[in-house]
Amino acid sequence: MNNFSYERLHSNLQYLKLNTIEELLDNYLEIAARDSKTTMEVLDYLFEQEKKHKEAAAIERRMKSAGFPVKKMLEDFDFEFQSSIDKKVIEDLATLRFVHNAENIVLLGPPGVGKSHLAIALGIEAVKAGISVHFTNTGNLIEGLKIANREGILEKKI
Ligand SMILES: Nc1ncnc2c1ncn2[C@@H]1O[C@H](COP(=O)(O)OP(=O)(O)O)[C@@H](O)[C@H]1O
Ligand SMILES: [Mg+2]
Fold it and tell me: Which residue, 40, 66, 92, sits at the end of a domain?
């Protein structure tokens, strides 16, 4: 590759915000030449890495903006300990069909039985699936709606 192509390639990768490819390119081209990789393999590898990085960054952004008070995962929920919950029902909810169908889930029970844990865990599943999530509690929700109402932007807030 001549110097002009090399520099234009790097500058185009920056322009297109393909930062991971730009970072990996020089090293990977050397490795690819050494291991006689095909053009298809090189392109596939580089774009796969770019996608993975972008996906991870987007998940991190959505995790932050969701405002979960703690991180609770579905894998950490002990279904044997909480025998009143059917694991299959939660696994079905984790498919997130309810989000796409605009349905609500209500988790009812005394304090400390894992309602928030499951709510957060399902929220995290949604974040991982590319959905924007917002965590709130009733107090904050009502307060936020009251303020929005006073400011005449209730509809927008809802
Ligand atoms: N079945 C369970 N498996 C694992 N952790 C649980 C389980 N039930 C409750 N916990 C944990 O106990 C604590 C209280 O649960 P939480 O979800 O806040 O209860 P709730 O919202 O029902 O009051 C949390 O740290 C939660 O992770
Ligand atoms: Mg709770």
Answer: 66
The ligand 1 atom at the shortest distance from the C-alpha of residue 107 is 22
**Closest protein CA for atom 27 of ligand 1:** 117
39-66 helix and 19-34 helix, angle to the nearest 10 degrees: 150
Residue 151 CA to residue 154 CA, distance in Å, equals 8
- Contact 85 CB / ligand 1 (< 6 Å): no
Ligand nearest to the CA of 137: 2
Quote the domain boundaries for residue 138: 74-157
40-78 pLDDT per residue, tens: 999 999 999 999 999 999 999 999 999 999 999 999 999
Per-residue pLDDT at 2: 78
